[in-house]
Amino acid sequence: MASRDVLRQTTRLASSGALLQVLFRVVTFGLNAFTLRYLSRELIGVVNVRLTLLYSTVVFLAREAFRRACLSGSTKRNWTKTINLLWLTVPLGVFWSIFLGFIWLHLLEVPDPSVVPHYQAGVVAFGLSAIIELLGEPFWVLAQAHLFVRLKVIAESLSVVSKCILTVILVVLYPQWGLYVFSVAQILYVSVLVTCYVTYFVMFLGSPEATKKSFPIARMKALLPNLVEDETFVNWKEARLTWSFFKQSFLKQILTEGERYVMTFLNVLNFGDQGVYDIVNNLGSLVARFIFLPIEESFYVFFAKVLERGKNVKDQKQDDVAMAADVLELLLKLVLLIGLTITVFGYAYSQLALDIYGGSMLSSGTGPDLLRCYSLYVLFLAINGVTECFTFALMCQEEVDRYNFVMLALSFTFLCISYFLTQWHGSIGFILANCFNMGIRIAHSIHYIYDYFKESTYRPLTGLLPSPFLILVYIISGVITGFSEVFFCCNKGWMARLIHVSVGALCFAATIVTMFCTETKLIHFVRSQFLSRYMKKGI
């Protein structure tokens, strides 16, 4: 596949992912806001921190390394061996579910049954849901490798909406069920997710469209583990790369979910405070899930396909290097400006957002300060997502192994800093520790990118330098909206709130106009790559 075709399909994947996720997440956002009125902070803390951590840890440790290894390189490979390798995620998931489930049941503090009933059933259900989701892993990797634009997003969106609707119904009708409600909803979520992938491939394989695309898999039976005569069961090069990524993924999970591990194992916050922190964390990470994650996942595939892993810049096709450098520069600029916008405007509108979303339970206490700090953290998330997706797409196995030692030191440092900052500044300490963690990872990735391109004429890191005039507009907007919050928000009535929102809207409009005037190359990239197909349809 030509590089420009890969770029076109990748941007289509990322833009479709972002737009469809916004559409479906708006629905779930409203459903979650409604559900908060019926739940205690303690129940939210157990579900969203303790049980969700069990589920995310199992699926991450079981599949992340396989995804990284099997999405590297060309789609022209022995897919039978790749699929055989991917099915190993299931027994690995069973092992982690049993091992971690035992810890969650017998070694961690058990919530008060009168406040959070049916904890044991919740642990079993969330561990089982992780195993069910892993049954769809070969389908996910095959779809992602061949850039199936809408399958992933529609499957995830339908499963999330189904889960939220069922949760709302059960919470309203059977509030006494406790964790049974969330256990049933979690099982439904993964079941819908896997069913969507299986159904799609049942319909797609053997169809005229699959024949036209010369799709490497012809029958559903080929998506099951298969022995190949006189050949190894798996591709050992992929298996060794998977092992390297596995050692890294173990550490990356600690960094990604570090604050939840500290909460769970060190009991620095009670279940109620954990619930408030998690709600604010989820609200603050909406942009990361809507925009940054689809961009990171899609362009990891782009960079892995356009440039060859392990080769230096001189040994690559120079046309591909030019395209990759240009795309990287513009992606960095795009996520930087999105992150700056969230940071500047998030500071003055955090309290208002929490009051509208969850009432006084969230807008009083540490909630607003948590969300303000998270607005800054979003900027770190934005830059780290793009820099790491390029770095991981190009690292050879030896570089991945060396990076594992960096991650080991960083994991230990992060956990220590999280603990001490939490003792000093409560739940805000977790976000400050995450900012430190992301800062170190960004520095490593920037160093790798600089070294990679230093022998060429391309300087993609200039994407991290926005226009000085645009920076000035951001500063002025931040000052104006900050004063607006002091004078008009948030206990002075709805008219004062509307004035505060109007001030923010004017400052935001001024920022966007300045962006269009000063970042013309970026605007052209977004319009030509991300928005072109919607503009053609008149959307």
UniProtKB/TrEMBL annotation:
InterPro entries of this UniProt entry? RFT1
The record's section on Pfam families has:
Rft-1 (PF04506)
Transmembrane as a keyword? Answer: yes
Q: Which family does it belong to?
A: Belongs to the RFT1 family.
Q: Where are the transmembrane segments?
A: 12-31, 43-62, 83-107, 119-141, 153-174, 180-205, 330-354, 374-396, 403-422, 428-449, 469-488, 494-517
Q: Which GO terms describe its biological process?
A: dolichol-linked oligosaccharide biosynthetic process; glycolipid translocation
Protein name according to UniProt? Protein RFT1 homolog
Task: Kindly indicate whether the keyword Transcription belongs to this entry.
Answer: no
What organism does the record attribute this protein to?
Accipiter nisus (Eurasian sparrowhawk)
GO annotation, cellular component aspect:
endoplasmic reticulum membrane
Quote the subcellular location field of this record: Endoplasmic reticulum membrane
Role, per record: Intramembrane glycolipid transporter that operates in the biosynthetic pathway of dolichol-linked oligosaccharides, the glycan precursors employed in protein asparagine (N)-glycosylation. The sequential addition of sugars to dolichol pyrophosphate produces dolichol-linked oligosaccharides containing fourteen sugars, including two GlcNAcs, nine mannoses and three glucoses. Once assembled, the oligosaccharide is transferred from the lipid to nascent proteins by oligosaccharyltransferases.
- Please provide the record's keywords in A-Z order: Endoplasmic reticulum, Membrane, Transmembrane, Transmembrane helix
Q: How does it sit in the membrane?
A: Multi-pass membrane protein
Its annotated pathway reads: Protein modification; protein glycosylation
Q: Which domain of life is it from?
A: Eukaryota
